[in-house]
Design brief:
The chain has 510 residues and is an alpha+beta fold. It is 49% helix and 12% strand. The chain is built from 22 helices and 14 strands. It is globular. The protein binds protoporphyrin IX containing FE.
């Protein structure tokens, strides 16, 4: 369906996202209605907004949502137009348009929406931020490597087990040394180290990284993530040297970047030295890509997964531990499962159905990557049930995943049987979904993104989450003496909690 956009007389693009699946929505009846995007520029083009954004982007996104609802447009002094939305239908469409052009040959030149990000730390060709043919090639390769079938291999799951048990036993030893018989930990740090240890063993096939090195990597990644709001707001790459004008942590960031690069170099050397190494790196090098590019992939995989996983698991475990009824159900389920022999991911999911629902609910309420960004390379018309939205060329599109996944009209009582603002694992049970005439794909969960750029670490995260919750809750009594209220949510790259996740841990067995 093409024609003229009545708002500006420019040629209208097809209303269906190219290659969109049928349920991504073609809403013919509304296609000639143009929805005006409320404009916030007059109040928002101030340094104050920029400063708040740098402090906590989510606060600004929520302020915008409170002012205008689920769709807004504004301009900042840098000259770009920003479109901000927390409307699930628009988010789904935008993800469907990303990296989809009108023909296969020049697909990336013609793609109306590209992933926006910078190669500051990892490099410009890495799979996370590249939007070109190179991304397409490497995505195919890495997508296959990280495909669902990989997690049906019991030998691989036993490596996940090794990583989780090594972390669990280290913690048990720490408790044993404490005269009180308990220890206070920062749960997000504990679980990020655990996730990185898992990455080292299950992805890089490296099994001897010392604890202090894992802790250093977690620390330096955290430092880098604190400056994420800056690179988000300013389109394109900020020259690294200019960082000091914006951030008092500039020196720390430079040091952390160097540390992470040295760590990735160590991974590369170990892989190169071992002809039997089973990671994706050797086959990648055999595909004639040069070493520096392979290094970018190592950096990406090493750093994309551990903080996101550790962060989301901290929110989820805390939500489970703080609700006596949910905690009891999870505990009963994991007490019944024998984890002494490794189970493939599908079996774990089958035998831990309620824990699996709690993990899905944690992904919904606490999406570590709460903000996704796209850059328009031409004007794009996005069809919705209530009218067409025009996204101007060169605008930055901010997708507010946090609000979308707490929207009562999408996730609330009417659709799922449970309020959207409450942590209710039952929402995800097969019985509940079937009783409402839904399938799980009718629920718009964007925590792992969507469309062609969906996270490749999704299955890896699910195996990690099921094993961590079950091994830790079987072995430890964990208490978090704080409440999870929305006012404590702060954000940089991931969704942080003001005050962190201080947790007292006791052993259940001697
Ligand atoms: C809870 C854990 C995780 C969350 C919430 C998460 C979230 C995301 C999101 C939202 C995206 C899409 C970004 C966009 O569209 O702009 C993404 C992409 C990606 N993730 Fe994850 N991720 C997680 C774990 C992992 C793990 C464990 C790995 C590594 C194995 C990983 C590797 C990647 C890679 C390589 C991409 C880029 C894919 C592409 O652009 O083609 N992630 N992740």
């Amino acid at each position: 369906m093409t024609g003229t956009n009545p708002a500006n007389n420019s040629p209208q693009l097809p209303v269906r996202a190219p290659n969109a699946t049928p349920d991504q929505g073609l809403h013919d009846t509304a296609s000639d209605v143009v929805r005006e995007i409320p404009d916030l520029s007059s109040v928002s083009a101030t340094l104050k907004t920029v400063q708040s954004f740098i402090r906590s982007p989510l606060d600004v996104l929520q302020w915008i949502a409170a002012e205008t609802g689920d769709l807004a447009k504004f301009a900042l002094p840098f000259g770009s137009t920003y479109i901000v939305t927390s409307d699930s239908e628009i988010i789904s469409q935008v993800l469907g348009y990303t990296d989809k052009g009108s023909s296969t040959n020049d697909r990336f030149d013609k793609s109306p929406l590209l992933v926006e990000g910078s190669g500051w730390v990892i490099g410009d060709d890495n799979i996370l931020v590249a939007s070109n043919k190179k991304w397409n090639n490497e995505r195919k390769f890495l997508g296959k490597f990280f495909g669902r079938s990989r997690y049906e291999d019991a030998a691989l799951i036993s490596q996940f087990d090794d990583a989780v048990l090594e972390s669990r036993d280290t913690l048990a030893k720490k408790i044993a040394l404490d005269s009180q018989g308990s220890t206070l930990i920062e749960l997000q740090k504990e679980l990020s180290v655990l996730a990185l240890r898992t990455t080292m063993k299950t992805i890089f096939d490296i099994h001897d990284t010392p604890l202090n090195e894992l802790e250093e990597v977690v620390h330096h990644s955290r430092v880098i993530h604190t400056v994420f709001p800056l690179e988000t707001l300013i389109p394109g790459d900020i020259p690294f040297d200019s960082l000091k004008w914006f951030s008092s942590r500039a020196a720390d960031v430079v040091e952390s970047r160097e540390y992470l690069k040295t760590f990735a170099e160590k991974i590369m050397s170990k892989v190169e030295a071992n002809p039997d190494n089973t990671s994706f790196v050797r086959p990648l090098l055999m595909r004639n890509i040069d070493r520096s590019e392979a290094m970018e992939h190592i950096l990406t995989i090493a750093f994309a997964g551990h903080e996101t996983s550790g962060n989301n698991l901290s929110w989820t475990m805390t939500a489970i531990l703080q609700n006596a009824v949910i905690r009891e159900r999870v505990q009963q389920e994991i007490n019944q499962i024998d984890l002494s022999t490794p189970l493939a991911l599908s079996e774990l999911i089958e035998r831990l159905p309620y824990t699996g629902c709690a993990i899905e609910e944690g992904l919904r309420m606490y999406p570590s990557v709460y903000l996704l960004i796209r850059r328009a390379t031409e004007e794009v018309e996005i069809p919705t049930r209530t009218g067409t939205i025009t996204i101007p060329d060169k605008s930055e599109v901010f997708l507010n995943i946090f609000n979308a996944q707490r929207d009562e009209s999408v996730w609330g009582i009417e659709k799922t049987g449970y309020p959207a603002d409450k942590f209710c694992p039952e929402r995800w049970s097969k019985e509940n979904i079937a009783a409402r005439g839904l399938t799980s794909s009718d629920l718009d969960l964007f925590t792992f993104g969507g469309g062609s750029r969906t996270c490749i670490g999704m299955h890896s995260f699910k195996a990690l989450a099921l094993l961590t919750i079950s091994h830790y809750m079987k072995r430890f009594d964990m208490t978090c003496d704080f409440s999870l209220s929305q006012s404590d949510v702060v954000s940089d790259f991931t969704l942080q909690r003001n005050g962190g996740f201080p947790t007292v841990v006791k052993s259940l067995e001697s």
